[in-house]
Amino acid sequence: METPLLLFTVAAATSAYLLWFYLLSRRLTGPKVWPLVGSLPLLFINRRRIHDWMAANLRATGGAATYQTCTICIPFLARKQGFYTVTCHPRNIEHILRTRFDNYPKGPDYQAAFHDLLGQGIFNSDGETWLIQRKTAALEFTTRTLRQAMARWVNRTIKNRLWLILEKAATENTSVDLQDLLLRLTFDNICGLTFGKDPETLSPDLPENPFAKAFDSATEATLQRLLYPGFLWRLQKFLSIGAELRLENSLNIVENYMTEALNARKEAPSDDLLSRFMKRRDTDGNNFPDAVLKRIALNFVLAGRDTSSVALSWFFYSVMNDKHVEEKIIAEITTVLKETRGEDPRAWVDDPLVFDEADRLVYLKAALAETLRLYPSVPEDFKYVVSDDVLPDGTHVPAGSTVTYSIYSVGRMKSIWGEDCMEFKPERWLSEDGDRFETPKDGYKFVAFNAGPRTCLGKDLAYLQMKSVASAVLLRYRLAPVPGHRVEQKMSLTLFMNNGLRVYLHPRVL
Ligand code: HEM
Question: How many Cβ atoms sit within 10 Å of the Cβ of residue 490?
Answer without folding.
Answer: 14
